[in-house]
Specification:
256 residues; alpha/beta; 5-stranded parallel β-sheet
Length: 256
């Protein structure tokens, strides 16, 4: 538990074992890092599933240095198989998107990257798996990269207000967007204009549009169809992220 969040998210006196239940009552999704670092007991995932409400989903880190930081990505097959033979599948229908983050030094190699995409399962034990890649090297700003993701139904994570320039294109049946630029001097993490922009981004993404303030590198626009949108608040001013996430949740509910 991140202690500075005790006030912003967890009220004083709340028992630690009830933190996830409390967070799930105020948010629609939480990202789990334990899937890639092995810091949780196997039974934890089934417990998290049981103590969260219907419709709640967990985003999960699928990657470790043994997978996406390899020089040859195809050598990661055993490590990828280990991810999906592990306890993460105990989340069942509450498993949201799997995030595969790549190092800023990892450049786009079309042949090797497509081979990596082929290793990602579409479903496991009857549960559909949604994959999202988080790339940082500028070489990925290529129509060829977008075409590969469209072909395999994989999303590129859009972090529109952080240091990295986003790759804005709708490539999968879902959208994975991240707010990474919260500010400690803002009670809700973002000023009203920033929160409103994220609400607009979420609704436009849900209909398959590319938000007008983001530059797309796709050679052709994706069809404008309804898509599920995952919007997370990470990085930035960590202590303000829960407030920003709850502020966005309230505004999205009002604009429905």
């Amino acid at each position: 538990m991140f202690e500075p969040r005790r006030g912003p998210l967890y009220p004083e006196g709340l028992r630690q074992k009830r933190e996830r239940e409390h967070a799930a009552a105020h948010l629609g999704t939480i990202e789990i890092n334990a899937t890639c670092c092995g810091s949780q007991k196997p039974e934890s995932f089934a417990r998290w599933r049981s103590e969260t409400p219907d419709g709640f989903v967990f985003a999960a880190k699928g990657s470790s240095r043994y997978i996406t930081n390899r020089r040859v990505l195809t050598e990661a097959r055993p490590s990828i198989e280990k991810v999906f033979s592990g306890s993460v599948m105990d989340l069942n229908e509450k498993l949201g998107s799997i995030n595969w983050p790549f190092s800023p030094t990892k450049a786009f190699d079309p042949t090797d990257f497509e081979a990596f995409l082929k290793l990602l399962p579409c479903s496991v034990e009857g549960v559909a798996i949604r994959h999202a890649v988080e790339v940082r090297h500028d070489s990925f700003r290529s129509p060829d990269f977008i075409a590969l993701l469209q072909a395999y139904g994989v999303a590129a994570i859009t972090a529109a207000d952080g240091a990295d320039q986003p790759i804005a294109a709708v490539m999968a049946p879902f959208v994975d967007a991240r707010s990474t630029g919260t500010h400690e001097d803002e009670p809700e993490g973002d000023p009203e204009a920033g929160l409103a922009r994220w609400v607009q981004t979420a609704w436009k993404s849900a209909t398959g549009e590319v938000p007008v303030d983001l530059e797309s590198v796709a050679s052709e626009p994706a069809p404008a169809i309804a898509r599920e949108v995952f919007l997370d608040v990470i990085s930035g001013a960590n202590v303000r992220n829960p407030a920003a996430a709850m502020a966005l949740t309230r505004r999205l509910a009002k604009s429905d």
